[in-house]
Amino acid sequence: AIMLLTVTVSCHKSDVKKIGCGCNSDSIWHYVAYDNFGGYNNYNATMGYDTVFKRNAWFIGVTIPNTNYNASLKICNPEYVSVKAITDTIPKKNGIPVRGVSIVFSGKIKRLCSNENQCFGCDAYLPEILFGYLIIDSIKLAD
């Protein structure tokens, strides 16, 4: 029984690595820094609690000024201390945060898995919007 458990766990881990997607993957698709998002040195980011399409999770929305490029990133580590320092202060109505806040952040973006809806439940996929998961390394309110 112990040997079977070990094999099962190691197979699952290798499958995750092979797929290279989702919050628990070791794969990293893109890195983000305070001053660089996908090669753009200027971007606007807002963190908010998204209830659209029954997402019910913390997301960061990114827009690149003077382009059509955007990103919608589901936060993988909402319990991270610096994330909680912000999310705990956002006003709530009936327990649900009522607005987003402007932030700057750094972290690692991971791909959605092929079996997932490519836009976290939206009706239409738009190629100019990057959808992914985000492991936040650092985050703070924008100046």
Describe this structure in words.
Strand 6 (92-93) and strand 7 (96-97) form a beta hairpin. With 143 residues, the protein is an alpha+beta fold. It is 17% helix and 37% strand. Residues 1-17 have low confidence and may be disordered. The chain has helices at residues 2-19, 81-87; strands spanning 30-33, 36-37, 44-50, 57-63, 70-75, 92-93, 96-97, 101-110, 129-141. The chain is globular. It has a five-stranded mixed barrel with strand order 3-4-5-9-8. A two-stranded antiparallel sheet has the order 6-7.
Summarize the entry for a quick read.
By secondary structure, the chain is α+β, with helices and mostly antiparallel strands. It is built from two helices and nine strands; from the N terminus they run αβββββαββββ. The protein has helices spanning 2-19, 81-87, and strands spanning 30-33, 36-37, 44-50, 57-63, 70-75, 92-93, 96-97, 101-110, 129-141.
Question: Which terms would index this structure?
Answer:
143 residues; alpha+beta; 5-stranded mixed beta barrel; two-stranded antiparallel ribbon; 2 helices; 37% strand; disordered N terminus
